[in-house]
Amino acid sequence: MPPHTPQLSGNGTRPDGRLRGRGALVIGGASGIGATGARRLAAEGAAVVVADLDETGAARVAKEITAEGGTALHRRIDVTDPDSVARVVSEAAALHGGLRIAVNSAGVNGPLSPLAELPPADFDTVLRVNLYGVFHAMRCQLPAMTATGGVIINLASIAAHAGFRGHAAYAAAKQGVLALTRTAAREYADHGIRVLSVSPGVVDTPMVSALPPGATDDLLAAVPLRRTAQPSEVAAFIAFLASDDASYLTGSDHVVDGGYLAK
Ligand SMILES: NC(=O)c1ccc[n+]([C@@H]2O[C@H](COP(=O)([O-])OP(=O)(O)OC[C@H]3O[C@@H](n4cnc5c(N)ncnc54)[C@H](O)[C@@H]3O)[C@@H](O)[C@H]2O)c1
Fold it and tell me: Which of 90-103 are b and which e, b meaning 16 or more Cβ less than 10 Å from the residue's Cβ?
């Protein structure tokens, strides 16, 4: 474990926690930030639908949550398919007294390539998951929340704020996520819906471990805290944003980057 990494806190479920009784949907919940976020929301009392293209992984996370005394079930979802998204969101909205929290964490890296060598099909694939996927999700989540109010938290990235070699499609998609977040926050504030994004730096998840060796070395060398983030450090922030403790936040993006973007 890198220096100064905080110990992960216990995952004991608190049915009296600050998210008690709230229905939550975590898309991309089978792995990484989504999986840890789902566990954290459940530990704070939310009833969580864990949805992912990887149905087996989503089932495993839901099972872990229930084994800890939390409330969860899993669903298969493909964020590139609007019908699949509509089905899962409407199911989540019918459970646990409505949909109050949505976390849109599904994402892919795509192949790393200089822009001029990036095949249009690869650009398309990344945009379909990382940008259209968030659009399809919000298009269903917003109307599902208009009666009760709620919070939508989209996963963006520091790649939306700074240039990284090889990440043209990924960065373009994440900038788009910031735009969707800001726009929806203005449009739906009157319905009691807050819309936010989180821009992590390098987080220790399967997405990062799948990168070629050394791919994040330059970036990490410029992180003042001198280490990657643990998924739990992003999940803790997601739980805060989802809670009434963040009641005056909407439309904003929040970097969780160990100081990388500090100027
Ligand atoms: N890990 C990082 O360093 C980092 C940094 C900045 C932003 N992010 C963003 O955070 C989010 C989560 O990343 P992670 O590191 O936890 O990645 P991860 O690879 O661990 O998890 C991503 C999940 O998305 C799912 N997914 C992929 N395509 C899907 C689809 N079409 N439909 C439904 N689910 C699909 C995968 O099955 C996987 O479970 C992503 O949006 C990512 O871009 C990650």
Answer: ebbbeebebbbbbb
246 pocket-lining for ligand 1 (C-beta < 6 Å): no
Give the residue, out of 36, 39, 105, 234, with the most ligand 1 atoms within 8 A of its beta carbon, to mutate for a pocket test: 105
DSSP element (H, E) containing 135:
helix 133-145
Contact 231, 32 (CB under 8 A): yes
* pLDDT beyond 80 at 253: yes
Give the integer Cα–Cα distance in Å for 83 and 40. Answer: 28
Atom of ligand 1 nearest to the CA of 158: 6
Q: How confident is the model at residue 220 (pLDDT cuts 50, 70, 90)?
A: very high
Q: Which of 261, 241, 252, 260 is nearest to 40 (CA)?
A: 241
What the chain holds in terms of domains, given with CATH numbers, is 23-256 (3.40.50.720)
Length of the chain in terms of residues written? 263
Q: How far is CA 84 from CA 20, 89, 145, in A?
A: 28, 9, 18
